[in-house]
Design goal:
The protein is an alpha+beta fold. It has an 8-stranded mixed beta sheet with strand order 32-33-36-35-37-38-39-40, sandwiched between helices. Helix 4 (483-497) crosses helix 5 (513-522).
């Protein structure tokens, strides 16, 4: 029988080290002949991303040992960092981007050689970076890798260019930039890797330009491939400033499949590259794709029989098989509620990466010939009794003006403890990053770390989140720092009003754009008793004027408005200029090597807070960028956060180091 103990003070087997060891997820699954490869996080190995290989017999090995780190920095968020091809002799050939120097390397996992470089180093700015590779072993004298090249032309974070490029596989470009062959003519500021048609005669890719983000508007470009491998007669087929196409794929008969939000939802279409309008394949008020934050994300793949494997849903997602001729869509059976945007096809089999409220992300295979599904990689294993996991409740709240707000509520849950009858639990409102993103309905041991201790969590998919159509996504246009703050406050207020949460023990936390929302909430409302702000944006004017990377350097023009036209709006909404309204204690967590939300933002905020008597702590982590990846960092961060809540909410946590709060 569960004993009674104050919320927040419950003992739990889910420690910070356990939560850290399960942070991150497999990514970028791909077929190499009859093998399946993917990247996998290694928090205990300085946060590197390993390449994992599943052989045809089911044997799984780490194919790329430490210290190799398969991770690209193109557009800073990166993208597909590897590609592979099967060979009749010598085993597979793999190419990958090594994070430390961002060079493209070749690797024969069955051979005796260490990986060898294919691309040179540049001393200019951020150097040369590569992403979204495609192997073409039969092109050129020695075979080539076609990919996205990001090349810095100066020291400023926006001094760069991006082109489609061909890298020779013989290593001749390892010390010779001129040996890299450029395929396009910088038609767009941003591009995805080139998809080559089945007959090898055409290449198609996606491009877009400032000030648009890829979820605002993109263009699909197709070009002819000449005999010498150059691209000719590039032309735009579809898209524009108000149509987002995040993925394209050729079919066996030479048509293009694409996801477009021209209807208000990312739906699937088929397009004849020689002319005509896109034909909708399954018109639904659901999303069949998502925001293109990383190059090479995959939401759908055609099968050899003409059917299409596709992710889809409204909020949570599932995997379905679509008949493009009839529009019939049949979903697979299984518990998974969120699928990562990475699908790969091997004959009649489809592999993806999926999770549920009771399982972390794992590699799932569907055999479309039999309808059978099975877990084939990174299987979830319960490190503790699942009774300590939270049971999420998917809810829709009402916000200002009667607008809908989607959220997942995770009440405290512990089989050994219950709170006093006369005590409501504290709750922490989590604001996701992006802000063009969403909180996934999956098992997160960091959430379980808090709920198993008696602290509730509410993840808010505030206006601007993806998964609910373009109109919902566009609610944040010009309203960042308003709609997101209001929606989070509305959820917190509703939980308090209905007697779910203690109205005097509410907190807000978030990272990146969620860190902005948390800080804007602390400086713009009186809802929260404290907050945790993680690698945030705190000064819009500074962030919008060369204090961030190129990809998001114009993002604020849609989120806030053009700086030249509404400079006062930038100043007024920034938490750094509203510290006079700040009364709640806060914890600030920051990576020292973050190029997206640099430490100067935090330092400026702390200078404005100094002398105001607000209890706070500032924790910085060397070697960490945007998103913590090292186990020791994540342990310190989550224990510091718990200590903050213990001190502010009034419960005892002798099991974590006390966080020193300065005034």
């Amino acid at each position: 029988m569960a004993s009674t103990q104050a919320h927040g003070s419950w003992p739990s087997p889910i420690g910070a080290a356990l939560a850290a060891s399960h942070d991150g997820r497999p990514e970028y699954a791909g077929a190499v002949g009859d093998e399946l490869w993917w990247t996998e996080p290694r928090p205990a190995e300085a946060g590197r991303r390993a390449l994992v290989r599943r052989a045809a017999d089911g044997t799984t090995t780490t194919a790329l040992p430490a210290p190799w780190n398969a991770r690209s920095r193109v557009i800073e968020y990166g993208g597909q960092p590897w590609a592979g091809t099967a060979r009749t002799e010598g085993g597979p050939l793999i190419v990958f981007v090594h994070f430390d120097d961002q060079r493209l390397y070749a690797y024969e996992p069955d051979g005796p050689r260490e990986p060898w470089p294919l691309t040179p180093v540049s001393a200019v700015g951020g150097g040369l970076r590569w992403a979204d590779p495609r192997l073409h072993p039969d092109r050129g004298p020695a075979g080539e890798v076609w990919c996205v090249l990001e090349e810095f032309t100066g020291d400023a974070p926006t001094a760069l260019r991006r082109v489609l490029a061909a890298v020779p596989l013989d290593g001749s470009a390892a010390d010779d930039r001129s040996a890299v062959r450029e395929l396009d003519q910088e038609r767009h500021r941003f591009v995805t890797g080139p998809e080559v048609s089945p007959d090898g005669r055409r290449a198609a890719w996606i491009g877009w330009d400032h000030p648009r983000m890829p979820w605002d508007g993109t263009e699909v470009v197709v070009a002819d491939i000449a005999d010498d491998g150059t691209f000719r007669d590039a032309r735009t087929l579809v898209g524009g400033p108000d149509e987002s196409v995040p993925q394209i794929q050729w079919t066996a008969d030479g048509h293009l499949l694409l996801a477009s939000d021209r209807s208000g939802w990312w739906n699937l279409y088929r397009l004849d590259p020689d002319g005509g309008e896109p034909v909708a394949l399954c018109a639904r008020d659901e999303e069949f794709a998502g925001p293109l934050w990383k190059l090479g994300q995959v939401w759908f793949r055609p099968l050899e029989n003409g059917l299409i494997a596709t992710l889809h849903g409204k909020g949570p997602t599932t995997l379905g098989i679509l008949d493009p001729e009839t529009g019939d869509l049949v979903d697979i059976a299984g518990p998974w509620t969120e699928w990562a945007p990475t699908l790969t096809v091997q004959g009649s089999r489809v592999a993806g990466i999926a999770a549920s409220p009771h399982s972390a992300y794992e590699i799932v295979e569907l055999d479309t010939a039999t309808g059978h599904t099975r877990i084939i990689g990174a299987p979830h294993e319960d490190a503790v009794d699942p009774a300590y996991y939270p049971e999420p409740v998917v809810r829709t709240f009402t916000g200002p003006g009667g607008r809908e707000i989607h959220a997942q509520v995770y009440p405290p849950r512990n089989p050994d403890r219950t709170g006093p009858e006369d005590e409501l639990p504290p709750y922490v409102v989590w604001a996701h990053g992006g802000p063009t993103g969403h909180a996934a309905l999956v098992l997160d041991l960091e959430i379980a770390y808090f709920t198993s201790r008696g602290i509730g969590v509410a993840e808010v998919n505030y206006g601007g989140s993806t998964g609910y159509g373009r109109a919902y996504r566009n609610r944040l246009r010009g309203q960042w720092g308003v709609v997101d703050v209001e929606d989070c406050a509305a959820v917190a207020g509703a939980l308090a009003a209905e007697g779910t949460a203690d109205p005097h023990r509410l907190a807000v936390r978030g990272g990146s754009a969620g860190g902005w929302t948390a800080a804007a909430s602390l400086t713009g409302t009186d809802v929260y008793a404290c907050g945790t702000v993680i690698y945030p944006i705190l000064d819009l004017t500074g962030w919008g004027t060369d204090e961030t990377h190129d990809f998001e350097s114009h993002y604020l023009e849609t989120l806030v408005g053009p700086l030249a036209e509404v400079p006062e709006r930038y100043r007024e909404r920034s938490p750094v200029t509203r510290t006079d309204r700040l009364t709640a204690p806060f914890l600030l967590l920051q990576g020292e090597d973050d190029p997206i939300c640099p430490p100067v933002q935090c330092e400026r905020f702390l200078a404005a807070v100094e002398g105001r008597g607000i209890p706070h702590a500032y924790r910085t982590y060397p070697g960490e960028g945007h998103g913590f990846r090292r186990a020791d960092t994540m342990i310190d961060a989550v224990e510091s956060e718990l200590s903050l809540y213990a001190q502010v909410f009034g419960f005892d946590r002798p099991d974590v180091p006390p966080l020193e709060l300065k005034k």
